[in-house]
Design brief:
- Its cofactor is Mg(2+).
- InterPro entries: NDK-like_dom, NDK-like_dom_sf, Nucleoside_diP_kinase.
- Major role in the synthesis of nucleoside triphosphates other than ATP. The ATP gamma phosphate is transferred to the NDP beta phosphate via a ping-pong mechanism, using a phosphorylated active-site intermediate.
- With 137 residues, this protein is an alpha+beta fold.
- It has seven helices and four strands, in the order E-H-H-E-H-H-E-H-H-E-H.
- The protein is globular, with a radius of gyration of 14 Å.
- The two termini are 13 Å apart.
- It binds adenosine-5'-triphosphate.
């Protein structure tokens, strides 16, 4: 079995979508192996999104991701990374498939409701960034 890492981003938490998003995740067959409500500091967000530091939206992304509480979680399922990215849909909700989490709950391309890891390697790095060993079950 395989894992991915997700965050329910500040927009979706503020809009009251935690329950609905977790329900979609459960219905899609993911097991929650770690989860917490937390808030990223500006430094946390800078570190987490370091790979995007040269992108024009980096500052906006760091400000947004540290602007309010998020839900961080580790999800387990066969083919977790790819299947979760299918479940969340395209980065821009305007381009996301009907029924995907971003289509249903995102505000915009920047405030797009959820994060999903893009590789098995990054899933592990991101899970360890947010959780200690004894918080992952
Ligand atoms: P994530 O890594 O959050 O799962 P992704 O892989 O779909 O998203 P990336 O291209 O890696 O998308 O961008 C990372 C995040 O940066 C996006 O989820 C979004 O919040 C933000 N972002 C991407 N493109 C833009 C943009 N054009 N304007 C503002 N923010 C953006």
């Amino acid at each position: 079995n395989n894992i991915t890492f997700t965050m329910i981003k500040p927009d979706a938490v503020a809009d009251g979508h935690i329950g609905a998003i977790l329900n979609k995740i459960s219905e899609a067959g993911f097991r929650i192996s770690a989860m917490k409500l937390t808030q990223l500091t500006v430094d946390d967000a800078k570190k987490f999104y370091e790979i995007h530091s040269e992108r024009p939206f980096y500052g906006e992304l760091v400000t947004f991701m540290s602007s309010g509480p998020i839900v961080a979680a580790v999800l387990e399922k066969e083919n977790a990374v790819a299947d979760f990215r299918t479940l969340i849909g395209a980065t821009n909700p305007a381009e996301a498939e009907e029924g995907t989490i971003r289509k249903m709950f995102a505000r915009s391309v920047g405030e797009n409701a959820v994060h999903g890891s893009d590789s098995d390697e990054n899933a592990l790095i991101e899970a360890r960034f947010h959780f200690s060993g004894r918080e992952i079950f």
